[in-house]
Amino acid sequence: MEQHRAVVIGAGIGGLTAAVALHRGGWQVTVLERAADLAPVGAGIGLAPNAQRALDVIGLGDRVRDLAAWQGDGGMRAPGGRWLARTDATAAAARFGGPLVLLHRATLVDILTSALPDGAVRTGAAAALVDPGGDRSPARVATPDGEIEAALVVAADGIRSAARHALFPGHPGPRYAGCTTWRVVVPAPERPFAPHETWGAGRLWGTQPLKDGRIYA
Ligand SMILES: Cc1cc2nc3c(=O)[nH]c(=O)nc-3n(C[C@H](O)[C@H](O)[C@H](O)COP(=O)(O)OP(=O)(O)OC[C@H]3O[C@@H](n4cnc5c(N)ncnc54)[C@H](O)[C@@H]3O)c2cc1C
């Protein structure tokens, strides 16, 4: 039977997840990523149970849940250290149907990529949607190596998506909400600590342990 061809623009979390789902559904998938490689960039990322349910659909939920590290207490603190609210990992898991999993973004990218066939992800491949196609004609995507035709194109090229702009030129695009975030991963402190967020006036700080022993802040 002829395999339908899908092209995914962007090898971020969204693009890779869509690619794994399509591959499992029998599609021949090519992921085009403009970055030179899938270097282990970023810091930590939090996956709540609803995100894990999406990963269950593509057979990767258990691998991600194995990386859950938060145990015991946590909560929210005032800037002086006073607890505003306490949360217990077990109670949170019972309430929301599973643990909150904090992992390094690069680990998630690795897990997703490992579920794709060799060669499915092409890096150094900035792509542009030339023609979205129609009922009788395939979509066309420009790449540095020439055009690709596909029955389906997934626009997963991030927050400033050029593919979205091509399809919806009137879309206003992202608007700065006034929040800037720095994310870091650091070695674990010697003393045990309770994962928490500290809420101050216009400021927020959070720390969570990762399974590999480091701390995501
Ligand atoms: C490098 C990076 C590091 C991040 N680190 C963190 C983190 O540590 N913690 C956290 O919580 N969130 C992080 N984020 C954000 C988080 O991953 C995303 O907000 C979320 O996962 C949404 O994913 P996405 O797939 O929609 O978009 P993104 O993750 O932004 O992925 C979009 C991808 O499309 C590629 N792309 C863009 N234009 C083109 C083009 N024309 N052709 C081909 N490829 C293109 C980009 O290079 C990128 O890899 C990071 C995002 C990026 C890109």
Describe what is shown at a glance:
With 217 residues, the chain is α/β, with parallel strands linked by helices. Helix content is 23%, strand content 30%.
Which tags fit this structure?
binds flavin-adenine dinucleotide, 6 helices, 23% helix, 4-stranded parallel β-sheet, alpha/beta, 6-stranded mixed β-sheet, single chain, 15 strands, FAD/NAD(P)-binding domain, 217 residues
Q: Layout of helices and strands, plus pairs?
A:
Elements: E1 5-9, H1 13-24, E2 28-32, E3 44-47, H2 49-57, H3 61-65, E4 73-77, E5 83-88, H4 89-96, E6 101-104, H5 105-114, E7 121-122, E8 128-131, E9 139-143, E10 146-150, E11 152-155, H6 162-167, E12 185-186, E13 196-200, E14 203-209, E15 215-216
Parallel strand pairs: 1-2, 1-11, 2-7, 4-13
Antiparallel strand pairs: 3-6, 4-5, 8-9, 9-10, 12-15, 13-14, 14-15
Helix pairs in contact: 1-5
Flavin-adenine dinucleotide binds near residues 42, 43, 105 and 126.
Structure, explained:
With 217 residues, the protein is of the alpha/beta class. The chain has one domain (5-170, 179-216): FAD/NAD(P)-binding domain (3-Layer(bba) Sandwich). The chain is built from six helices and 15 strands. It has helices at 13-24, 49-57, 61-65, 89-96, 105-114, 162-167, and strands at residues 5-9, 28-32, 44-47, 73-77, 83-88, 101-104, 121-122, 128-131, 139-143, 146-150, 152-155, 185-186, 196-200, 203-209, 215-216. The strands form four sheets. The protein has a six-stranded mixed beta sheet. A four-stranded parallel beta sheet has the order 7-2-1-11, with helices on one face. A three-stranded antiparallel beta sheet has the order 8-9-10. A hairpin with a 7-residue loop joins strand 8 (128-131) and strand 9 (139-143). Helix 1 (13-24) runs parallel beside helix 5. The longest helix is centred in the first third of the chain and has 12 residues, at 13-24. The protein is elongated. The termini are far apart. The mean pLDDT is 93. The structure holds flavin-adenine dinucleotide (FAD). Flavin-adenine dinucleotide binds next to helix 1 and strand 3.
